[in-house]
Design brief:
heterodimer; A: 204 residues; alpha/beta; 5-stranded mixed beta sheet; two-stranded parallel sheet; 7 strands; B: 8 helices; 35% helix
Chain lengths: 204, 205
């Protein structure tokens, strides 16, 4: 019930940007335009009556029907009110698959957006470290969960195994992953300098 | 043949591939020691690990086979037991662990996923670890029964018993090409061709 009032409040605040809303299996779902979705998500998190402070998941859907757009799905929850809301952002297939990143709103969106990028190829503008997460960083077969990606992949098995063995698993750590205070002293000197220079160290 | 009898260096003579009474006795002792004191490296990644844990437990006991102590460092282990699905992302890690083990080393492929990719006939799973490392014993099953693992270990023990140090090819690495693929590329593709229901799963939308 409180989700339904959220939908009404969204329509009142954003008008045309809220393209459609529905109730699917008891869950409130809202479709919003891609260019204003960051603004809408920030409004949902910060407005006193809404307080959607928990980002449960970010995922995407590629429908089999080629006329339907690809949708990025945000699942939100207001912990104080125990209310759920699903926000869908349709992206036209022929246009650029780009959405604003919500990492500045919810830190948990970091890896969730990386997963959507890896599996669907949606770019998140403003993401601090957008690279593949489930497949290895130099994976070049495509984006596996798209419907035009065959289940066994494009390359032959031998080629896939060869490329998998060629990926260097130790080469791709982001600065964020390394800025753990305890590990700082064990890092080599040049890495420590790079961490300090990037300014992302939090009181090492 | 007569040259070898005049060879004054006994070790060279023994390594020439001729088995004699002395070499078989030495083999018997070494192999007895190796097969009854295996240090396992349980390279557990997925659900088969639960079966491995239950075999290591008191009901199906691994201790009575001498493989009680797992060593989670490849430098200290001699049996690499690959347990669970190996994804393509995990493949270089597995290969590195195998390369870091010292001879003599054996590999058991435990579970359907390690034998052939199991139910995961997709873009992300290695279709059998024998494409990247040599395997001594395959234990199929999803997951295999604990008795299956015990049977596999006893089979490996029989295999170890049959080894001889006079065979120089036994402890050589067999990389097919510089990519590190253990089987030839055509062979990997032949083995990974879809069959049965999988033929429907190679299509895209």
């Amino acid at each position: 019930m409180s989700a339904a009032t959220s939908v009404a409040a969204l329509r009142a605040a954003f008008g045309q940007a809220v393209v459609r809303d529905d109730r699917i299996c008891g869950d409130a779902v809202v479709w919003v335009a891609a260019d204003r979705c960051h603004e809408i998500l920030a409004w949902l998190r910060d407005t006193p009556g809404q307080d959607y402070n928990y980002l449960v998941d970010i995922t995407a859907v590629d429908y089999r029907d080629p006329e339907l757009p690809l949708e990025v799905v945000y699942q939100l929850r207001a912990l104080s009110r125990a209310a759920d809301l699903r926000l869908k952002v349709p992206l036209a297939r022929e246009g650029p698959l780009v959405v604003d990143s919500v990492v500045n709103l919810w830190r948990g969106a970091d890896w969730l957006e990386r997963e959507v990028f890896d599996m669907f190829g949606v770019t998140f503008r403003g993401h601090p470290d957008l690279r593949r997460i489930l497949m290895w960083e130099t994976y070049n077969e495509g984006h596996p969960l798209r419907k035009d990606f065959p289940l066994r992949g494009h390359y032959t098995r031998a080629e896939q195994t060869r490329q998998a063995l060629g990926a260097n698993p130790e080469a791709h750590y982001s600065m964020e992953e390394l800025s753990i205070a305890q590990a700082y002293k064990e890092l080599p000197r040049d890495m420590q300098e790079r961490l300090e220079a990037s300014g992302r160290l939090e009181g090492a | 043949m007569s040259n070898r009898f005049r060879d004054s260096r006994p070790l060279e003579y023994m390594r020439s591939g001729d088995e004699t009474f002395l070499t078989t006795k030495v083999d018997a002792v070494f192999n007895w020691g190796r097969k009854y004191s295996m240090f396992l490296y349980p390279f557990v990644t997925a659900c088969c690990g639960m079966e491995f844990m239950s075999v290591a437990g008191p009901r199906y006991d691994l201790d009575r086979f001498g493989c009680a102590l797992p060593r989670f460092s490849p430098r200290q282990a001699d049996l690499l037991m690959v347990v669970g699905t190996i994804s393509h992302r995990q493949a270089p890690v597995l290969k590195k662990v195998y390369d870091q083990m010292a001879e003599p080393k054996w590999v058991i492929a435990f579970g359907a996923c390690t034998c052939s990719g199991g139910p995961y006939n997709n873009y992300a799973t290695v279709q059998g670890i024998d494409t990247i490392i040599p395997v001594d014993v395959y234990i199929p099953g999803c997951p295999p029964r604990p008795e299956g693992l015990i049977y596999g270990i006893m089979m490996l023990q029989k295999k170890i018993q049959g080894e001889t140090f006079t065979d120089p090819t036994l402890r050589q690495e067999h990389l097919v090409n510089s990519d590190g693929l253990f089987l030839e590329p055509q062979r990997i593709d032949e083995l990974s061709e879809p069959f049965g229901n999988s033929v429907h799963q190679t299509r895209s939308a």
